[in-house]
Amino acid sequence: MNHFAPGQRWVSETEPELGLGTILGSDGRFINVVFMASGETRRYALNSAPLARVDLVPGQQIRSTAGAQLTVAGYREQDGLRVYQCLGEEQTEQELPETDLAFDLELHGPRDRLLAARPDRNNRFYLRYQAQQARARELASPLRGLLGARIQPLPHQMYVAREVADRHAPRVLLADEVGLGKTIEAGLVIHRRLITGRSARVLVVVPQALQHQWLVELLRRFHLRFSLFDEARCSALEEGNPFEESQLGILPLELCGARSDIFEQALAAGWDLLVVDEAHRLAWTPDSPSPEYLHIQALAERTPSVLLLTATPEQLGRSGHFARLRLLDPHRFHDLSAFEAEQQGYASLAEQIAPLLEQTPLDAQTIAVLRERLGDEEVLPLLAKGEEQAARTALLNRLLDRHGTGRVMFRNTRTAVGGFPERICEPQALESPADYSAGLFPERGHSGDSPWWRLDPRVDSLAKLADTYKPEKILVICKADETARELQSALKDRFGLAAGLFHRGQSIVDQDRAAAWFADPQGARLLVCSEIGSEGRNFQFAHHLFLFDLPQDPDLLEQRIGRLDRIGQQGQVRIHVPYFAGTRQESWFRWLNESLNAFAAPNPAAPAVFADLAEEIEQALDEPTLLGDLIAHTRTREAELREQLRHGRDRLLELHSCRREPAEALTLAVREEDAKPGLSEFLERACDELGVDVVERADGALLLRPGAHMSTGALPGLGEDGLPACLSRDEAMAREDLAFLTWEHPLIGGMMDAMADGDFGNAALVALRRSGLPPGQLLLEAIYIAECPAPRGLGVADYLPGTPVRLLIGPNGGDLATNIAPDRLNAACEEVEPTSVQAVVRAINRDLRKRFQRAEALADERLGVLRDKAMALAEERERLELDRLKALARVNPSVRQDEIEAQQQRMVELGQALAGARIRLDAARALVTA
After folding, report:
1. DSSP string, 460-515
2. Domain check: are 234 and 356 in the same one?
3. Same domain, yes or no, for 537 and 685?
């Protein structure tokens, strides 16, 4: 194990771009390192820190923090630190403690390697150049963080993700209707903010029943490895704060109340982004907020960015929604009555401007409302232009900008999004076995001589259904894990039907395999799930849902149906509902079907109706003669609630939650990026060079495995068993067992890091054939990177993404790069025999130094141009954003003053960072004509 001492200089093997690090100290388990050049601090486990000691060799050119240029002659040890013996510019001897080494000192540079006759192979040089180009494209992409997720890009999700993720410190409520993918929206926000550096520490607080679902979804869809902070993990650490061991954590909400010490540790650890799922469970009244609400309130007060995922206002009432908004901005949302009046005002406004929303002619009354709301100076010039559609779009956008809640809440509806299938309910009344109880789940209480699955006609009904709809797939959901296991076994034993099994008792790996087997067109036709199958997994490729039993909550029923009834479902969803006639099962089915029409379509009033009538429902289940009156009463109550919801509907908020034109443009851009070639070729070359074996399987998928001579360290996601993968988004959606490789996948990022960082391919010596020049002439191809050492969250890569600057210095000192394309030049290169390298370098040494001097001068000129262009672009874009925020703040009270101040500070820091841009030599290739 390495021995660390404060003040020692080390470099990160995984992030060499951070510059020289300085050891701050160690607590015996962790080591803290500051990288002053980039303004970053890292905390590593002591026994596995990816650090390499700075080891300068005699003859190496270095620089001190004071700017002095020195040449290393040797060093001595003093109190664990190295003191270098150096020669100054006048050959004066002096000592330099390693603590005084320049923070951005380059080691093992291309120039040093070439002059020392230690070149790398030519193909590694070219691959490094390609990796740098790919990295720069990825850094500069406006789609960064939106491309790598295993999702189908949908306009409303893409729009919400970009709008939220790109804010300084977003504090928003995601309240889409069921089936529209709030979890995906949150995952996209997390992914984009992590990739762009806007956030680094993320805490997700969820109900305990959903902790594993989130853990799996974040890994499976977004390649994000979160740590689950359950009671066992937190209690296992006797000293220190367990939440400081991971940047990404999931915390069960129930644990916050059960263990105050664990909650205090989570609070003390500090986070950049807090995500809370099922936020409508946080009970609140003005006089008595629940303990859960107070826990989240404490976290929200200390965390800059907050995402709350919640049910719609229709499901929990305006006061509940107001309580959630208070967590986001207690100063803006401090008066419930004022909030309700404001919301009613928006609903009323939507009715008044209906012609604008519904694309009918603008009458005098509508124009009068617009003039009152926006002012004549904004309305009349637009109407005078005569371009009606353009005027409509502009007027609507200006109204949406003024929507107070729209800044902090997004609520997309199924009606607005569209694309949902028809739902067909196919009930089947069956005769109950003689020894069954009349309950909802009679098989669980069965105690006869024969196992229940030999007597239960639902089993036979399912087998017959499978035969009737061969070869279509059928998702089967029941309540209990035991029922699922026994039913799956019965289908095999009695009917020879091979069905997948998915229940809570399985490991995550086994659940993934079961889902993948079901998703595979050649795999299982049936998947038998316990209730966990209704939590988050999506099977929209199937069209049949067999409800072996019915859950005791309309919301849970909708969750079950929502596994198939989702965006992307291409056919009708047939819901097969067997029930035992004359039992509670029949009464419960009839109430759901005849009162709420719950099988045909989502009913936003259902939760409130169920809560209001829970006692009467229970009585009717026990006494069927009461059922008719209950159904009639329920219909009346349901109609009343639907009318209330219709009048309270905020159409402006729905439009604000997904502005159609930019949302569709964003989705199209993602699809176009998917279609671009390049990744496949890069992957093939990278695997070949890094020693990763690639095999194409019989099913067309790729299998990547560490080769016997893999030349790099561990790559993310590439274990000994290999990584099954594909490059197609559609295939990845259909095959959950395959990794979806994109430029944002950790494995591809790891490969780029392995090739673009360190000394991989940063120096090459080749013979140049067919150049048209006399033999023995020297050309120098120099690859420079213009960069700014700055915190990632500042976003300098938006303006200076590290695009490689390629120079080709000819025999006369001119730059020939624009005349000879990289691929054409590379094709004419041949390796110099290893036995000849020393002699060739000695022969070209003097000319090579001159070429480097010329390249440095030209690179400095290029830097000036790049820097000026980047600063001008940054000033233009960031000024527009500042002006936009100021304009919004004048008409929308939900634009916080700290957002404007943060943008002003960002402009100052960006200007300073870009002004300090530097250009460094990343790779060099000496070409000798033959």
Report:
1. HHHHHHHHHTTTS-EEEE-S-HHHHHHHHHHHHHHH---EEEE-TTS-HHHHHHHH
2. no
3. no
